């Protein structure tokens, strides 16, 4: 009986894993269609910047901290400064963000919520565009934001273990080294903490 239950659990897990992989594959091929779309507008500055950019330095044409620039530089050094190579960077981070959203939704809500969330992301026009745009906001920065939120929720909702607080701090630092506007994470976490505290106070008041 125990072996049968274990086998059944594995079959269900394997089935769920297949759904996740299927959604990621669909998301990848939808985005792959635009991987070599002609560079437009401000995207050109990134390709020019990569020609003389030095790792972990501030950009000249792209006046932002070095994290995103360093990722682009790494890829262009390996594969060359080509349109599809530059678009490959946001594509990878966009798909990785879908995976992190799945983990957050599954941990803090349920599997159904997780699949609906990533299904919407996979087909969302905004996320498709963000996953192909040669920039940082919709791909690299969003991925780091999602990781930051995952670490913070693991600390506040799950374990209160110091390692998750340290991880949150480190990821926040990386976010700031990607774009200074990441400071808004402080506001997000602050609002969440206040809301959570008020919910607890309200629950205790109701018990009385």
Question: What would you call the quaternary organization?
Answer: single chain
How much helicity do the residues have? over 70%
Query: Segments where pLDDT lies below 50 for 5+ residues?
Result: 1-11
Tally of extended strands? 0
The class by helix and strand makeup works out as mainly alpha
Please give the alpha-carbon distance between the first and last residues: 46 Å
General description of the model:
The protein has one domain (2-207). It is 78% helix and 0% strand. The protein is built from nine helices and no strands. It has helices at residues 2-32, 43-52, 66-79, 83-108, 111-123, 125-130, 137-159, 162-176, 184-207. α1 packs antiparallel against α4. The longest helix has 31 residues, at 2-32. The radius of gyration is 20 Å and the shape is globular. The model is unreliable at 1-11 (pLDDT under 50).
